[in-house]
Amino acid sequence: MRLQGKTALVTGAASGFGEGIARAYAAQGARVAVADLNLDGARRVAGEIGGIALGGDVSKAADVRAMVEGTVSGLGGLDIVVNNAGWTYSRQPSLDVEEEAFDKVFSVNVKSLYLMARAAHGAMKARGGGSFLIVSSTAGLRPRPNLTWYNATKGAANVITQGLAQEWAAENIRVNAICPVIGGTGLTSAFMGMEDTPENRAGFLATIPLGRFSTPADIANACVWLAEDASSFITGVLLPVDGGRCA
């Protein structure tokens, strides 16, 4: 049990990468708070893994504080945060993206990190340290065209990772980012800008040397390692989980 005795809060955990991370954490002995805007989905996952479900919008300060407080009161503390919740608009020429979509992608992908950092820092410090993880993207390392504003949010997430890693190291709070390549999630069609079909996937697969999309298990395995004691000297890392896309 690589995470025995640890408590984790995973956002966006009702489906996709977040669900995979929550399940992997529970399988490794962690107590898991499953947080999602979709509370019914969070309850389903929490019920299946023996965790607790928390609803809320990661771009709202009061909701984020409630997620942290609910984790601490419900599970006894906070050792691991996985900032997984994210959003994108449909892939399109960047000048065609409406202002509302621009504001939303920055609120969900960037402002949420600011809010969670403020809300979770004290609880993690009280535990003597911990692991603050950000699910970023290869989009912040090697941007694809027609997703410029989304790419920018992930570039910001990467810089936030490295900045907080420096600031929080003295408190033994490690900050790392996982950078997945495109995967089979609820956002896949939006990333592609077209229907998710084998034919439409072909162009994206051609850019991934290992020849497949990322899976929730791929991301979860990286998140387990970055949360366990075996990686206690790792902080400020932007870890591509990308089948060689950024090599």
Overview of the structural elements:
With 247 residues, this protein is of the alpha/beta class. The chain has one domain: 3-Layer(aba) Sandwich (Rossmann fold), CATH 3.40.50.720. Helix content is 45%, strand content 15%. It contains 8 helices and 7 strands; from the N terminus they run βαβαβαβαβαβαααβ. It has helices at 16-27, 39-49, 61-75, 99-126, 148-168, 188-192, 198-205, 216-227, and strands at 7-11, 31-36, 52-55, 80-83, 130-135, 173-180, 238-241. It has a 7-stranded parallel beta sheet with strand order 3-2-1-4-5-6-7, with helices on both faces. α1 (16-27) packs across α8, α3 packs parallel to α4 (99-126) and α4 (99-126) packs parallel to α5. The radius of gyration is 17 Å and the shape is globular. The mean pLDDT is 95.
